[in-house]
Specification:
This protein is an alpha+beta fold. 35% of the residues lie in helices and 18% in strands. The chain is built from 13 helices and 27 strands. The chain has helices spanning 5-21, 49-55, 86-97, 125-133, 145-149, 153-157, 187-192, 205-315, 318-337, 359-366, 506-511, 578-592, 636-646; strands at 38-40, 46-48, 56-57, 60-62, 69-71, 114-116, 122-123, 142-144, 172-176, 183-186, 202-204, 382-387, 394-400, 416-421, 432-433, 435-437, 442-448, 453-461, 464-465, 470-474, 522-529, 542-549, 552-553, 564-565, 568-575, 597-600, 610-613. The strands form 9 sheets. Strands 14, 15, 18, 19 and 20 form a 5-stranded antiparallel β-sheet that branches. Strand 18 and strand 19 form a beta hairpin. The longest helix has 111 residues, at 205-315. The protein is elongated, with a radius of gyration of 47 Å. Residues 99-145 form the B box-type domain.
Amino acid sequence: MAEDGSDVNEKKFTKELKQTFLICCVCSEVFDDESRHPRLLPCLHSICFTCLHNVVKDETVQCPICNDITSVPGGDLSKIRKDNTRRDLLDFVNVRTMSSEIKCSQCETDVAVSRCAECKDFLCKQCAHAHNVTKVTKSHPVSTIEELKSTSLTNFCGKSKCQKSGHDQYTVDLYCYKEGCRRPICTLCALTEHKEADGHIIKDGTSTYEQEKRETDTFLAQMKEREKEVDKITNWVKYEILKVHERSMQLEENIKTAFSNCRELLDKRENELILQIKQHCEDKAKVLNQQKARLEEFKMEIKDSISFTDGVLTGYSKAGFLQVHGQINKRHENLYARRFDQCPHRTANMTFNAVNMGTDFQKHVLTLGIVDSVDIDPEHSKIETFTGQVCQPSKVIRVSLFDRERRPFLEEKADVQVRILDTSNHPLTPFYNAVHSDSDNCFFHELTRDEPGVLVADVYVCGLEIRKKIKFAIKDSKLPPVGVKKGARAKDTGRSKTIKPQNTSPASKMNEKVVTGNQPRGSMDVRIEKHLSLPGNEGCGTIVITYTFQSGIQTENHPNPKKPYTGTTRIAYLPDNDKGQKVLKLLKVAFERGLLFAVGVSQTTGVDNCIVWNGVQHKTSRHGGHLSFGYPDPDYLDTVLDQLAAKGVTEVDL
């Protein structure tokens, strides 16, 4: 006969109860009242006393389930609480499962037919009769095994007896609140060892249970909510793990496609060069063949003249020779006087010059492609708001990015988006890309409004929300925005814009203090490739800049003094025109002032203590456009001039 749903659920409950509370997590043996009695660790996992001796080491016990460490001063395992609550649970499970006959706890030979709720003993028929007539135990509640099979766990357990020697006839129905005690006690305990005159605070056990249970229920509800939060984050992490593998495969395909395209370009260039060779060869061969034909024709005329003359000299009579010798000599004179090129019109002198295919090509190959791996931590990043300097009413929202170790994120390639909400979380603007500030290594968004009010900024970094939304009010404020420079006002509400520094005169420039950075010692080498143009800058050559830094030790001006940093080589490209030369000169000034590089976390590798860009864009690729840090990019040189000016490097310095 099939089991109904209640029987299935009952068996499942009993099995889970046994697995969770009645089995040692080390040896997997069922707890008993002897050597394998349970000891409860602070992490709420239980180990039998036998196994506890095996896992104690250096006065500590490490939980085999959660690895939590419990200190055991002097190695005294008796200080780890004995769990006396498992006896009733064990009997409850044994009755429910009845995998074998339960022996009488008194005579230990006959099969038990009942159980005393106070003594916690199973009784055979004879021992049960004696139990019911004995003066001390005849008032104890005794239930048959069949009755117990349908009894709830609460009723099965009944009232607990005091475990203290000599108090076994008293139930634990009081609770001592004194600091250092805080445990259930019996009436005899209250009269002997827990006297109120000695400072003990005795409360009714039932009311204490209700009070403590309410507090525990509150904590339990909080823990269940925390479990949901952890489960949510766990699922998020699992999702990211899957996405990491998916993204890895996708990027691998992208890289293969990109390099396949590069190989196609190389193959195309190879075929073009081979075609050029063939064309040159065909042109040379055509000219040479024409020259050869003319020479052979001339040679044939000479040969025919020589042959005729030889024939006349050997076969003609003297009179016959004299008749034609004038014509022969005239022919010879004409042929001998005829001019002809005495060198080939073309030669086989052709060469292949592997321009940009040696060391230059090696360096260029090392700059092909960029893998970005952004590990910004939204929890540790900051949002601040300041009153704008340009106009009123306005507000500047500053986003400072940090990684998991709270290290500042120094590079500018991060997707930071800001939108503005009202206090009911209704969007007032779409998402705008925040603008990177080179001087502060922060991202800014300036909001302008026609009227003051309380608004909410919602900030996302790489698709992840930074903490909670931040509320702010647009009103007059004397607190200046840190690191924000003056710039033109944006016309549209909530529009992002680059904040540019004010123009300065040469006189004021001379009076200003020169800004210097903590760029490590390195070299800046420049060469010109006149034969090679950059896309969008045809008609001029290419300026190739090579920055070289050796590995070294950070100074007091760096993020981690006395720690080593990793050296690097960076190659950048500029068009060799008037504006490109101007930018080159300003870059040299900035390099000398230590402003182009810094020591920090590499965005591409996530490794700390590396030399990284410091807020001045460089084109590290010849091709690919703006998104690939290459050309064409019509606004690039103007952008670099603005970024250098923000660092105090202008034409006045030239």
